Structure to design on (400 residues):
């Protein structure tokens, strides 16, 4: 058994009530025999993510890209060194309880690799199960910083909130003495962004406050008015899901975008038209859009997704990276969880965004980020790359 290096963060202690699951069967006795190289003849990977619910669109991006990434990483064979990789998908609907139930069922069936999760709340709950049951877990688009370093068994295939915030900071001059308001949903993702802004921009001398909105809210005018009344020097918006359009409409109608500089993450393609004429007033940090990176892996991913009838989008790299990481873990770890964990610590690989590094100490995924603007194009808006921000400039502080 591995000794956990990091203490569970206080913000996620509430997930303890989700209960314990039986330990997974040992990897030394995989079903179906072994290959000539000593690995199991078959490994089942459980993909637990949102196929329904408010983050279903993110789940689809991840799943489409994961399929493309598995094909890429196995040269179209679906196996590595004689080990066949079988995928079993489960829909968590963005519900931590539903996700934990699915993970327990998968572990009970002998699965010792779990991946996926678009929701940060789900990721934190699944990470706890990974530690309790000693299985490998690779989180997906979930961005909460608390996922990084939470335990020895948890990795991530996407970026985290601290990388978003650090990228936002690259738009600014000296912010010492300025006031920054974080406008976000009152969930793990939003709270994680508040903590990241406090740590990063607050660490540069800014005063940080927040306006947090209930996740099920549908009327945003009062909250936009609250932001405006606070007269901050900068507004950092952290938002995800289907209510983005209504939120931005309220921000625009209440004059926030005219009165105060606003920086936010550029969402998926479905949100590009949500900003309307205000698009050119917003500073966008960006995790990914298909035209941002220029490399062979990105080209291969985009072509594969499009050929399958999908559309590459914001969280496509997360699915593609996850497949590459899982193939690496199985190849080097031969199905043994501790060996698979070791195979990923310090792993460097070429992903759709270019060079990626799994930081050994806390499993953060170090990667480039982007500055982007939206430009008018035939009655709609499309993203245009302003600058690539080097991975080391926005690397999160190591989790303690």
């Amino acid at each position: 058994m591995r000794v956990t290096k990091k203490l569970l963060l206080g913000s996620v202690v509430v997930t303890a009530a989700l209960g314990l699951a039986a330990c997974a069967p040992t990897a030394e006795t995989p079903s179906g025999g072994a290959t000539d190289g000593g690995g199991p003849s078959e490994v089942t990977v459980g993909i637990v993510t949102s196929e329904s619910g408010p983050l279903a669109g993110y789940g689809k991006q991840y799943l489409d890209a994961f399929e493309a990434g598995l094909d890429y990483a196995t040269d179209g064979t679906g196996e590595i060194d004689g080990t066949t990789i079988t995928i079993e998908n489960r829909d968590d609907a963005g519900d931590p309880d539903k996700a934990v139930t699915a993970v327990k069922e998968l572990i009970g069936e002998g699965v010792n690799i779990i991946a996926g999760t678009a929701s940060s709340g789900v990721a934190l709950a699944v990470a706890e199960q990974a530690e309790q049951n000693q299985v490998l877990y690779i989180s997906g688009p979930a961005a909460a910083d608390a996922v990084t370093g939470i335990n020895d068994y948890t990795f991530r295939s996407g970026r985290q909130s601290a990388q978003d915030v650090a990228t936002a900071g690259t738009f600014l001059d000296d912010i010492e003495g300025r006031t920054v308001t974080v406008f976000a949903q009152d969930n793990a993702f939003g709270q994680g962004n508040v903590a990241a802004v406090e740590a990063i921009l607050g660490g540069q001398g800014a005063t940080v406050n927040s306006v947090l909105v209930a996740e099920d809210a549908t009327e945003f005018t009062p909250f936009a008015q609250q932001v405006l009344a606070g007269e901050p020097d900068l507004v950092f918006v952290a938002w995800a899901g289907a209510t983005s359009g209504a939120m931005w409409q309220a921000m625009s109608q209440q004059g926030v975008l005219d009165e105060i500089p606003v920086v936010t993450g550029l969402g998926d393609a479905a949100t590009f038209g949500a900003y309307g004429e205000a698009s050119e007033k917003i500073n966008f940090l960006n995790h990914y859009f298909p035209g941002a990176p220029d490399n062979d892996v990105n080209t291969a991913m985009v072509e594969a997704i499009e050929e399958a009838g999908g559309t590459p989008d914001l969280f496509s790299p997360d699915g593609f990276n996850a497949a590459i990481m899982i193939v690496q873990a199985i190849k080097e770890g031969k199905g043994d969880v501790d060996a698979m964990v070791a195979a990923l610590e310090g792993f460097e690989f070429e992903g759709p965004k270019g060079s990626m590094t799994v930081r050994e100490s806390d499993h953060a995924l170090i990667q480039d980020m982007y500055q982007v603007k939206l430009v008018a194009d035939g009655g709609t808006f499309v993203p245009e790359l302003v600058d690539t921000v080097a991975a080391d400039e926005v690397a999160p502080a190591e989790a303690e």
